[in-house]
Design a protein that fits this description.
Blueprint (H helix, E strand, L loop, with lengths): L28 H4 L5 H7 L4 E11 L3 H7 L7 E10 L2 E11 L18 H5 L6 E2 L3 E5 L16 E10 L2 E9 L30
């Protein structure tokens, strides 16, 4: 049985999926903890997939984001927020945090993603590594969500650190109320499920 309360804060209490307070999470694991490309899963679901960029700005990361990225408390980062839509409905809210240093050199093109899928870029990189997930249960009116995506029901979220070309970036995803997909592995190629690395474990809260 899950023994955590939905979190309404702007910087949720992220936990390891093995936290005993999340003992009832087993029924949700097939999608929440799938380590493949979420973009690929959404595209393979059969609906019309679209990335809607909600905002992109230079900002100071939230406290827990700075910790997992091992960045200074005042270091600026490019924060990108998007809605992943299927047949027009927002099914996932994604927040990506790119420290300034990560957008130099080989990753400079990530400054100009516009409506492109970040996941498609990350999972096409041979040297990409991903940390194990942290998860959080958000209230439907959580300040972590943009106002336009707040909802009546609580929502599960996950985040992980990607390491690419020697740089770190953080991607968080919230599975919204319309998210109703089959379990991973049914009709979706799993070629991208391969690169989870405990060597980039995020710091715990």
């Amino acid at each position: 049985m899950i023994r955590v309360q939905p979190d309404s804060s702007a910087d949720p209490a992220w936990r390891s999926p093995v936290d005993p307070r999340l003992a009832g999470l087993h029924g949700l694991r097939p999608w929440l903890l799938d380590d493949g490309s979420l973009t690929r899963r959404l595209v393979a679901s059969g609906g019309t997939f679209r990335v809607e960029r909600l905002s992109q700005r230079w900002s100071t990361p939230r406290a827990s984001e700075a910790r997992v990225l091992a960045s200074g408390p005042r270091q600026q980062a490019l924060v990108r927020e998007v809605a992943l839509r299927l047949d027009g409905e927002a099914v996932v809210f994604a927040r990506s945090v790119f420290p300034y240093a990560s957008l130099c050199g080989r990753l400079a093109h990530l400054r100009k993603l516009q409506g492109s899928s970040l996941g498609a870029i990350l999972f096409s990189a041979p040297d990409m590594r991903r940390s194990p997930f942290q998860v959080a249960l958000l209230s439907g009116d959580s300040r972590y969500l943009p106002r336009s995506l707040r909802q009546e029901n609580s929502a599960w979220a996950r985040r992980s650190v990607f390491r690419l070309h020697g740089q770190r970036l953080l991607v968080s995803e919230v599975f919204l109320m319309p998210f109703r997909l089959r379990a991973p592995g049914t009709g979706v190629e799993r070629g991208s499920r391969r690169r989870v690395s405990a060597a980039i474990l995020p710091a715990t809260q």
